[in-house]
Amino acid sequence: MAPLAAATAVSSMPDKFGERVCRVARQHLAAKAREVGGDNRGAWVRHYGRGLDQSVVGFFPWCQAFANEPWFAASRELNVPLPFPLTDAGGSPSYYVPWVADSARRAGKFRNGATLKEIVPPGSMFFVPGARGGEHSHIHVGIVLADDGTTIRCVEGNTNEAGGSNGYCVAERWRKKAANDYGLI
After folding, report:
1. The pTM is what?
2. Residue 91 CB contacts under 8 Å (≥ 6 apart), including other chains
3. If you ran DSSP here, which 8-state letter would residue 93 be given?
4. Residue-wise pLDDT tens digits, 126-175
């Protein structure tokens, strides 16, 4: 449990929301968060899912649960509201990527990557569109660390070396900016 304790340590740095989100995401990356005991299972997955993993529910792809973690931590530690809701009307966190992308859209924080000209602020979420396209088909999510104008550097959960959307670990990746959509901080 020592890596989990280190990854969830509260920082006293006087940073802004996006900086704090990136700091927390990097802490989980440094701790080498990963599945243990099978697909979408283990202590890290249960931590992100607040007690849920695939041993409790039929299917639990945890990329959104991971992406929520740094946002919730930054909001709590800095005592600021989230840029857009990550919880449903009952206060339960949403782990469904299309719902969170729609939440960003409803809050006016959603941007289409193919038409986005501005730099994506660090700490924002990126959403990978699904094969079918359409506004409700996002299949994967992560946290943007940096944007060089054409490529984003990010940290994402439930991925692998190939950048898949059902992997086994938290990893740092590089993705084409225009190929993704964004929920801005």
Report:
1. 0.93
2. none
3. B
4. 999 986 655 568 999 999 999 999 999 999 999 988 888 889 999 999 99
Contact status, residue 95 vs residue 60, Cβ threshold 8 Å: yes
DSSP H helices in the chain: 2-7, 17-30, 43-48, 63-78, 97-106
Contact yes or no for 169/160 (Cβ under 8 A): yes
C-alpha 136/C-alpha 100 separation (Å) is 10
Contact between residue 156 and residue 67 where contact means Cβ atoms under 8 Å apart: yes
Strand order in the sheet with 151-159: 110-112, 181-183, 125-129, 138-147, 151-159, 169-176
Distances from the Cα of 72 to the Cα of 16, 21, 29, 162, 173, angstroms: 14, 9, 17, 28, 22
The helix/strand/coil state of 113 is coil
